Amino acid sequence: MSWVVASKNVAMLVRDKNDIEKWQKGEMAGRYGFAAEMAHVWLDIVARMSDAHQKEIREEMNGRTLVGEYIGSQDHQHLVKYSRVTLIFYAVVDNYSEESCWPCSQAWSFFKKYSLDVVHIQSLGVFSNYGQLCDQLEKTFKDVAKSPIA
């Protein structure tokens, strides 16, 4: 069974870490560098799962895409300094669906099932009034703007 790991408009098909090394040779090695780093992290995550969970996630991921962020690399550090290198996930896409992605509750349940790291989210509420929604979004924007990064 293979995984497609993609980043920065580059995708690679890998079964194991030996396959990653093949993408890192030759004149195209630089183009696949970031995707290769992500592939190493993903395969490490999968390797920590039980055999049963590995089989199950492979079956559940058929026709689906996990969307996440590669964090913690000292070579590609963002504004926030993370304590470890990993992938944090925030969406699941059914590749053949008209929907853009799964509802958050469904995706978070999937991530929890496989002990995948997730982006932290907070519900702002349910709004039936457009003005109240806009007020809450503005308040949240201001709160985030003045909050510390980490």
Question: What's a quick, concise take on this entry?
Answer:
With 150 residues, this protein is α+β, with helices and mostly antiparallel strands.
What does this protein look like?
By secondary structure, this protein is an alpha+beta fold. It is built from 5 helices and 4 strands. The radius of gyration is 18 Å and the shape is globular. The chain has one domain (3-120): D-amino Acid Aminotransferase, Chain A, domain 1 (2-Layer Sandwich).
Q: Any descriptors?
A:
two-stranded antiparallel ribbon, globular, 18% strand, 150 residues, D-amino Acid Aminotransferase, Chain A, domain 1, alpha+beta
Summarize the main sheet.
Answer: 2 strands, antiparallel
Helix content: 40-55%
Major sheet: order of its strands?
1-2
The assigned CATH architecture is: 2-Layer Sandwich
Show the helix and strand layout.
Elements (H helix, E strand, L loop, with lengths): L2 E5 L2 E5 L2 H7 L9 H15 L3 H11 L2 E8 L14 E9 L9 H10 L16 H17 L4
Antiparallel strand pairs: 1-2, 3-4
